[in-house]
Amino acid sequence: MAGAKHTEVMDVELDALWDVISDYENYPKFVEGMESLEITKRDGNTTVANYVVSMFGKKVRYTLKHTEKPKKHLEWEMLEGEFFKFNNGSWDLKEKGKGKVEATYTVDVGFPLLVPKSIVNTLTGTQLPSMMKAFVERAQKIAKKKSKK
Questions:
Q1: What angle do CA 116, 119, 124 make, to 5 degrees?
Q2: Tally of CA atoms within 13 A in the half-sphere of 90 that contains its CB
Q3: In this predicted structure, what is the pLDDT of residue 4?
Q4: What is the pLDDT of residues 90-108, one digit of tens each?
Q5: Which of 44, 51, 74, 116 is found 20 to 30 A from 66 (Cα to Cα)?
Q6: Nearest partner of 92 among 80, 107, 77, 112, judged by Cα
Q7: Separation CA 10–CA 8 (nearest Å)
Q8: Tens of pLDDT along 9-67?
Q9: Which helix (H) or strand (E) covers residue 10, if one does?
């Protein structure tokens, strides 16, 4: 089991960040290592999606169920997968004044093999801030485009 939690106050509008976090289909455009994502089911605030990511030099497939509380909380749980025993996590968002959001990203993954601690730390710890930054940069870019219209 490997878990990580990262909280950061971001310079981005809550609406824009939520739009990016909940726009699963576009993850492959800006999430490093994400090869593809296919939505297989939508039902209210629940979305099921098949993911393919490039990891350890191979493609890893898994299916996540996302449950949303719009603009506040998004959680996921792995329904099935080839590599992970489990992959669960969440985003928690709190508006901190105009143009600022406190975002907490939590992830808990289980590996079926003995994976070296350095690799686990890279996946769950080191890459977390850079992944969050990718979401913020995309949200800022989208918000900027909208404000020009």
A1: 125
A2: 12
A3: 79
A4: 999 999 988 999 999 998 8
A5: 116
A6: 107
A7: 6
A8: 999 999 999 999 999 999 999 998 899 999 999 999 999 999 999 877 889 899 999 99
A9: strand 2-10
Per the structure, how many domains does the chain have? 1
Tokens 């959680």 found at? 75
Report the Cα 74 to chain-centroid distance in Å.
9
Greater confidence (131 vs 75) lies with 75
- Domain of 130 in residue numbering reads as 2-148
* DSSP string across 57-77: TEEEEEEEEEEEETTTEEEEE
Per-residue pLDDT for 124 more than 60? no
| First-to-final CA distance of the chain | 46
| Residue 51 tokens, joined | 């993911």
DSSP 1: -
Q: Which CATH number goes with the domain that contains 130?
A: 3.30.530.20
Single-letter amino acid code for the residue at 149: K
pLDDT at residue 63, rounded to an integer: 97
Q: Which two three-digit tokens encode residue 142?
A: 């989208």
**pTM of the predicted structure, to 2 decimals:** 0.85
For residue 111 the two structure tokens come to 């590996």
